[in-house]
């Protein structure tokens, strides 16, 4: 039996109306669509993760390796255990929450933030193992679940605009439009963003990673051509290849020594909430493309891909990266005909192969990498169509969830606003019976937390 026959038999390719060649092409397509995370995740997390004795770009390379390894491991579990064509990697939005809200905003050490991700992953695994998914889902208001993706999208947009210096601080209005066309950094970022949106609109596979690399190449071309000096639109110096991640891997253990209980619980809760529902929503959404859903609209044996997600998150925290989740970009491979775990296996192997490009990651200017946040942020806004804006409880809860996230610079605060608002509006309109006891309890606990937190009693 040849390799092709062995792979076909191992992943039941023929039973899923596919063939090995189609699965291989689908895996390559999915990888190209999501590989931008290899560059983007390190630059986001490196804003918060500072390791004594190592420069910024050395830390970027460490996180890039952690990103690759956690993505490869999680996707491998998806391939061999769940036999589904889904790719996984550290999620955009949760990495921003990790860096900008938890570490830089709340002042929590990055090691403790990794500990929270680890706890969230273990909790996810336990709940998945005992089949408690449906009970957890019932605890959260439907409008919050439907709007959380769009809220994260707006949060990513806000961060991306700031990093590209399109939006800048202002004493009178807090933020304002920057001096874009007097700033080469912003000009290149805006041109790269326009180019990337054009590729995406035309349905080009890998549009985001092509946009990032092209923008970076233009920046280096202008620098090497003498138009700009080193350090203006390209890194001033480049470190040697950094493959030692021992200062990063295992750092979560140290994080358990500095925990403020209430804040830590809220951080874990937010990581878990977003990861759980983002993964469930992505799995259902991508499964629609592949006709994987049963007559009730559910994904059979959904606990297996959920377990792959949980294992990836736990391993990612141990390696030194934020929450791993299933990628909506997996739909590109499914559209190419990917139907089995062989597609995911190809994605995992390509992630491992990308370890060879680690030295290149540090050469990519930040404005090029942050293009991805704006493009993905716009994509995520489509979730707003799922909100019933004619229902007052839905409108208020979803509206606050979506808007508080960017305005408070926190996914956690947006979720809390939506969770608290839902039972209050239901009470106001006399539909209190529609709210589960658990929803009242969670809302009450969040109210207590924010009273204490905003009075400065806790972090």
From TrEMBL:
Domain of life the protein comes from: Archaea
Topology versus the membrane, per the UniProt entry? Multi-pass membrane protein
Indicate where this protein is primarily found.
membrane
**Annotated compartments:** Cell membrane
Alphabetized UniProt keyword annotations:
Cell membrane, Membrane, Transmembrane, Transmembrane helix, Transport
Locate the transmembrane regions by residue number: 24-44, 56-81, 88-108, 114-136, 148-168, 180-201, 208-228, 262-286, 306-328, 340-360, 367-385, 405-425, 432-452
Q: Which GO terms describe its molecular function?
A: purine nucleobase transmembrane transporter activity
Gene Ontology cellular-component terms for this entry are: plasma membrane
PANTHER family given for it?
XANTHINE/URACIL PERMEASE C887.17-RELATED (PTHR43337), XANTHINE_URACIL PERMEASE C887.17-RELATED (PTHR43337:SF1)
Member of which family? Belongs to the nucleobase:cation symporter-2 (NCS2) (TC 2.A.40) family. Azg-like subfamily.
* Name of this chain's protein: Xanthine/uracil/vitamin C permease
Species assigned in the record: Halorubrum kocurii JCM 14978
